[in-house]
Design goal:
- The complex is a heterodimer of chains A (451) and B (295).
- Chain A is 51% helix and 14% strand.
- Chain A has 451 residues and is of the alpha+beta class.
- Chain A has 18 helices and 15 strands.
- Mean pLDDT of chain A is 88; it is low at 12-49.
- With 295 residues, chain B is mostly helical.
- Chain B has one domain: Orthogonal Bundle (MetI-like fold).
- Chain B has 13 helices and no strands.
- In chain B, helix 3 (62-93) crosses helix 12 (247-257) and helix 4 (100-112) packs across helix 8 (167-178).
- The two termini of chain B are 37 Å apart.
- The chains are: A alpha+beta (451), B mainly alpha (295).
C-alpha cells in the first residue's frame, strides 16, 4: 500500500511539474523570440553610438590545417580595416554546424554570420531561418558574382546571402595513357561518342577482366550530372516541372548501361570502392584513362600525384551542339534569423566576398570563388604552377556551362525520392523504361502534394 | 511528522534526476506529441494540421514504408543472431581452462570500441576488392559479394558487423552462468546427464532472465539504428537503392534536411508505439519461458 501511495505521489508531482514546464516553456519560446531579437538590436545600436565595438560571432566549418589560417587571415584583415566591428571565428565541425545553427536560431541566440550551403538558401529563406540582406546590397556587390550563384540566393525578390565559393565538374584525362594508346594528348574527347571511342582505345583487357578502363560515366560523377548534361538543365525545374521521363534522360541511362555492361559490374564496383575508401587512387595509379570529377580534384593530383601527366577539358556533350553542361555547388555567407546586428553582419559578409579576400582565398586554397573578377585574377596568379593556372582557367570558363541546382521549394527532398530509383536502373533491378516512369510519377506526386 | 520530512529529503535528493527527466525527457516527449500534429519547422511556423502528417505517412509516403521495412528486417535478424552468438560465446568462456581470462578479454574487446572508428574499420574490411573479408573468401575460390555497394548485401553486412560486438552482452551471460549453483550440476552428473543436457536443462533456464533483458534492450536498441547507416551508406542517406534507409535515418533527413520537423515528430511517435507494443508482447510471452529463481 505504502508503495502505491508513493507511486501516485510521484506521478502527481511529475504531472503537475510538467504542466508548469510546458506552459512556461512554449509561451516563452514563442513570445520572446521577436522581443528578444529587437531588444538585442537596440542594445547593440546603443553600444555602437557609445563608440564601443560590436562583437560578431562567425561560424564556419573551415577547421583544416589548410583552410583555417586562410579564413583567419581574412578575418584579421577585416578587424584591422575598421574599428567598429570585431569578428570572432568559431569553428564548428561539418557534421554539426547546420543542426547547431538551427537549434541556435530556435533558441533566439544564433551566430551573427554563418557559412551555409548555396543550394538550400531558398528553402531556409522560406522557413524563416535567415535575415534578408536586400536593403544593404548595392548593384556593385550584386554583380560581383556569377549569375546563377546570385540567383540561388534570391527568394521572393529578396536577396538572402552572398555567394562565397563554388565548384564545377570537368573531365580529367591521363596524357601519358593517351600517347600510349596512339591518341593525341592535346585533343580530348568533346562528345559522348568520342568518349566511347577513346575509351575503347584506352581499355586494357586481359583474360576477360579489365586491367585498365578507358572511361566510365559514373566514376567521380553521378547519373544526375549526365542527365543535366543531356538536358541542359536540371531534371526538375525550380517551379516543379519534372523532365525525367524524356528522351534525353532515356538516352543517358541507356548510354551508361551500355558501358556498364562492357566493363562488368565487378570492375566498376572495385574501382568505385577504391575511391570511396581512399586507399589508393585509381586515376593516379593509371587504372583509368579519363574521368569526370569535381575540378578541385586537381589539388589531390598536385599534392599526391607528382608523376602523373594529366589534362583537363570541359564535360563532353551528348551530341555536337547540345552543350557542355556541367554541375556545381557552393557555399554562401548568410545572417541567421535573429542575429543581433544584421547591418554589422552584412559589412563582414561584404568583406568576405570582396575582390581581395576572394583572391586570397582562391590563391591559398585553389578553390573557385564566387567573385568573377577575383576568379579571373586567380586564373593568372603567379601563386599557381602552370598546370594550376590551366585548371583554374578552365574552372572559370566552365562556369558558363555550370548549373547550380537550388532545391525546388515544391520538392525539397527530390533527390532522396528519385535517387534510389536511378540506382536501381543502374543496378538493373528495374528497366530504364519502368524506372524513369516511376521516378517521374513519384516526383510529380510530391510536387502536387506540396503545391 | 517525521515521515513527511523524510519524504521531502528523499525528493530533494532525487531532484537533479527529476529536473533532468522533466526538462530533458518528458518535456521534449510531450512537445513532440503536440508537434506531430503541426507543421512545425523549428524556426517560423507551428500551425495545427490535425492528422495530416500521419495520413501522409501511412497513405502516400513510400519511403516511410521502405524505412520501416529496412528497420524491421534489421531487428528481425540482428536481435536473435546477436543473442544466440552471445550465449554461445559465454558458454565457451565459462569453461575452466588455463588462459581463459585472455580469451574473455579478446571477446569483450570489440564492445569497448565504438562509434565511427569501428564503422570505418568495417568499411575497409568489407571493401569488395581490397577488403580482408573478400580476400579471405577468395582463398577458397569464393567470389565475395559487393557488401555495402550491393542493395541485397548492405543490410546483411551491417548485421554481421553487429555480431562482432556480441561480446558486450556476453559479459552479462557469463556473470549469470557463473551464478548458477554448482549443486545443480553435481546432482545432474550423478543422474548421468550429458553436457548438452545440462546446458539445455540447467544453464539455459537459469539465465533466461538475462536473455529476456537482453532481447528487450537490444530490440529497442536495434530499432534506433542510425549512426551505422549514416556513416556507412555511400551518400549518407541510405544508398544503395535505399537499402540502408533505416527509420531513424529517414526521420533525421525529414527533420534536418527538409525541416519537416512536425512530420519527423509524428514518425518518432509511430516508432515509439511500435516498440511499446513489441515490448508489451515480449513481457507477455516472458511468463512462459523466463524462469526467476525466487519464484
Amino acid at each position: 500500500m505504502k508503495k502505491y501511495l508513493f507511486l501516485i505521489l510521484a506521478a502527481v508531482l511529475v504531472l503537475s511539474a510538467c504542466g508548469g514546464f510546458q506552459i512556461g516553456d512554449s509561451e516563452g519560446s514563442n513570445a520572446s523570440e521577436e522581443d528578444s531579437a529587437s531588444g538585442e538590436t537596440e542594445g547593440s545600436d546603443a553600444e555602437g553610438s557609445n563608440g564601443e565595438k560590436v562583437t560578431l560571432d562567425f561560424w564556419s566549418f573551415w577547421g583544416s590545417e589548410q583552410r583555417r589560417p586562410v579564413i583567419d587571415k581574412i578575418i584579421e584583415d577585416f578587424n584591422s580595416s575598421q574599428d567598429e566591428i570585431e569578428v570572432q571565428h568559431t569553428y564548428v565541425p561539418w557534421g554539426d554546424i547546420w543542426t547547431k545553427n538551427l537549434a541556435a536560431i530556435a533558441a533566439g541566440d544564433p551566430p551573427d554570420v554563418i557559412i551555409n550551403d548555396i543550394n538550400t538558401v531558398k528553402l531556409r529563406a522560406q522557413e524563416g531561418q535567415m535575415e534578408p540582406i536586400t536593403e544593404f546590397v548595392d548593384s556593385d556587390v550584386e554583380n560581383r558574382f556569377y549569375d546563377q550563384m546570385t540567383e540561388a540566393t534570391m527568394y521572393e525578390d529578396e536577396m538572402y546571402a552572398l555567394p562565397f565559393n563554388t565548384d564545377t565538374q570537368i573531365l580529367f584525362y591521363n596524357k601519358d595513357l593517351f600517347e600510349e594508346a596512339g591518341l593525341d594528348p592535346e585533343d580530348p574527347p568533346s562528345t559522348w561518342a568520342e568518349l566511347e571511342e577513346y575509351a575503347a582505345q584506352l581499355d586494357v583487357e586481359e583474360g576477360g577482366s579489365y586491367e585498365r578502363i578507358g572511361f566510365y560515366p559514373l566514376i567521380g560523377a553521378g547519373s544526375d550530372v549526365w542527365m543535366m548534361n543531356a538536358l541542359g538543365e536540371n531534371y526538375i525545374s525550380p517551379e516543379g516541372d519534372v523532365k525525367i521521363d524524356t528522351e534525353p534522360v532515356h538516352d543517358t541511362f541507356n548510354w551508361i548501361l551500355e558501358q556498364k555492361n562492357k566493363y562488368g559490374e565487378n570492375t566498376i564496383t572495385s574501382i568505385n570502392s577504391q575511391f570511396e575508401n581512399a586507399q589508393q587512387d585509381p586515376f593516379m595509379a593509371g587504372n583509368i584513362g579519363m574521368m569526370v570529377q569535381n575540378a578541385n580534384y586537381y589539388v589531390q593530383l598536385r599534392d599526391f600525384g607528382q608523376d602523373i601527366n594529366f589534362g583537363v577539358a570541359p564535360l563532353p556533350e551528348k551530341e555536337e551542339g547540345n552543350g557542355h553542361t556541367s554541375w556545381g555547388g557552393g557555399f554562401v555567407a548568410e545572417i541567421p534569423k535573429g542575429a543581433k546586428d544584421p547591418e554589422a553582419s552584412y559589412k563582414f559578409i561584404e568583406f568576405l566576398t570582396n575582390h581581395d579576400s576572394q583572391l586570397y582565398w582562391a590563391e591559398n586554397n585553389f578553390d573557385l570563388v564566387a567573385h568573377q573578377e577575383a576568379g579571373n585574377s586567380a586564373a593568372e596568379s603567379e601563386e599557381f604552377s602552370e598546370a594550376g593556372r590551366e585548371v583554374y582557367s578552365l574552372m572559370v570558363e566552365n562556369m558558363d556551362n555550370t548549373l547550380l541546382t537550388p532545391q525546388p521549394l515544391v520538392a525539397p527532398d527530390f533527390a532522396s525520392t528519385v535517387n534510389p530509383t536511378f540506382e536501381s536502373i543502374i543496378s538493373e533491378s528495374t528497366t530504364v523504361e519502368a524506372g524513369l516512369e516511376k521516378a517521374q510519377s513519384d516526383l510529380e506526386r510530391i510536387v502536387e502534394n506540396n503545391r | 511528522m517525521y515521515k513527511k520530512k523524510e519524504n521531502l529529503y528523499g525528493y530533494i535528493f532525487i531532484l537533479p534526476w527529476i529536473i533532468g527527466f522533466l526538462g530533458l525527457t518528458l518535456g521534449p516527449l510531450l512537445f513532440s506529441l503536440v508537434g506531430s500534429f503541426t507543421n512545425y519547422n523549428v524556426t517560423s511556423q507551428m500551425d495545427f494540421v490535425g492528422f495530416a502528417n500521419y495520413k501522409e505517412m501511412f497513405m502516400y509516403d513510400d519511403l516511410f514504408w521502405t524505412s520501416l521495412y529496412n528497420t524491421l528486417y534489421f531487428v528481425a535478424f540482428s536481435v536473435p543472431l546477436t543473442t544466440i552468438a552471445a550465449i554461445l560465446i559465454s558458454t565457451l568462456m565459462n569453461q575452466d581452462i588455463p588462459g581463459m581470462r585472455i580469451f574473455r578479454t579478446i571477446y569483450y574487446l570489440p564492445a569497448i570500441l565504438s562509434g565511427v572508428g569501428v564503422y570505418l574499420l568495417w568499411m575497409q574490411l568489407l571493401d569488395p576488392s581490397t577488403g580482408l573479408i573478400n580476400q579471405f573468401l577468395a582463398l577458397f575460390g569464393i567470389d565475395g559479394p559487393n557488401w555495402l555497394f550491393d542493395a541485397e548485401w548492405a543490410k546483411p553486412s551491417l548485421i554481421m558487423m553487429k555480431l562482432w560486438s556480441a561480446g558486450g552482452s556476453m559479459l552479462l551471460y557469463l556473470a549469470a552462468m557463473q551464478g548458477v549453483s554448482k549443486t545443480l550440476y553435481e546432482a545432474a552428473i550423478m543422474d548421468g546427464a550429458t553436457r548438452v543436457q545440462m546446458f539445455f536443462r540447467i544453464t539455459l533456464p537459469m539465465v533466461t532472465p538475462i536473455i529476456f533483458f537482453d532481447i528487450v534492450t537490444s530490440t529497442i536498441g536495434s530499432f534506433q539504428i542510425f549512426q551505422e547507416a549514416y556513416v556507412m551508406s555511400a551518400d549518407n542517406a541510405g544508398a544503395p537503392e535505399n537499402s540502408l534507409l533505416f527509420y531513424n535515418l529517414y526521420m533525421w533527413i525529414k527533420a534536418f534536411n527538409v525541416f519537416d520537423m512536425g512530420y519527423a515528430m509524428a514518425m518518432s511517435w509511430i516508432l515509439f508505439i511500435i516498440v511499446l507494443i513489441l515490448t508489451i508482447i515480449n513481457f507477455k510471452f516472458a511468463r512462459r519461458w523466463v524462469h526467476y529463481e525466487g519464484d
